[in-house]
Amino acid sequence: FVLEQVRQWVPEDQIEVDEYPYADAERTYTWKNLIVTLPGATLPNEVIVLSAHLDSVVVREGNALEAAPGANDNAVGVAALMEAARLFPAYRFERTIRLIWFTGEESNAAGSRSYVQDHPTENIVAMLNLDMFGYDSNNDRCFELHVGVNPAADAVGQAFVQTIQQEELDLHFDY
Fold this sequence. Notes:
By secondary structure, the protein is an alpha/beta fold.
């Protein structure tokens, strides 16, 4: 479904279906990541990645219809990337934007591990992983920013902080 939608918005030569093998105890499967690359206008060799994952976990306890982890982990990220795929082709960005829908993330990050094995990563200057950002299990209105230790990532994290503050969103944040 995601691929069908993306094909309506993005030229085919900017879409990659990246197959990779995944093996469990019983057999080997072919899993696929979906990658959309929107070339940058002035700094095309610098890549900004936005990612989400298509897989979910199975609810082992309780009613799966009431506790649907896929809605939070990670349909919210998938929906945000789909909206980016719909809107971004109408804009020119300085840097290349790469939208990646990973599979197998709930299976020891299989999709992202495969991606970094098969694709160059040295030109990636920023990465935003849109995982469960719409989920607030304790209703504390806290937006958790896992910025990491790379000093360059601080600018991205601070952009989120500035948006929360300037737009006077009903959120606070952990940085």
